[in-house]
Amino acid sequence: MKDEKTIGHRDVVRRLSSETNITFKAMERVLDMYIDILTEQIANGKNVTIKNIGTIKVLPTPAKVGRDIKTGGRIDIPPRKRVKLQACATLRNILKE
Hints:
By secondary structure, the protein is of the alpha+beta class. It has 3 helices and 5 strands; from the N terminus they run H-H-E-E-E-E-E-H. It has a 3-stranded antiparallel beta sheet with strand order 1-2-5. Strands 3-4 form a two-stranded antiparallel ribbon.
């Protein structure tokens, strides 16, 4: 059962399809291509800006030392990349209301 606060991929495709009079399958292909392009750019370390939403930024995390809970031994955690959404002013203002 889907959470009432969550909208899924099919829901977005269905709404776009009905509002543009484009078939569901054609709209699904367009949305999938859009997501593939965004994913590819993010995977290549590029920031992606989506109008009226914000910028998806790729940020490095440094290497750090962790502890094994069972043994208490040291674990070296390698550096990685993480993704952060920086909301634009438009979205922040909508959320304030």
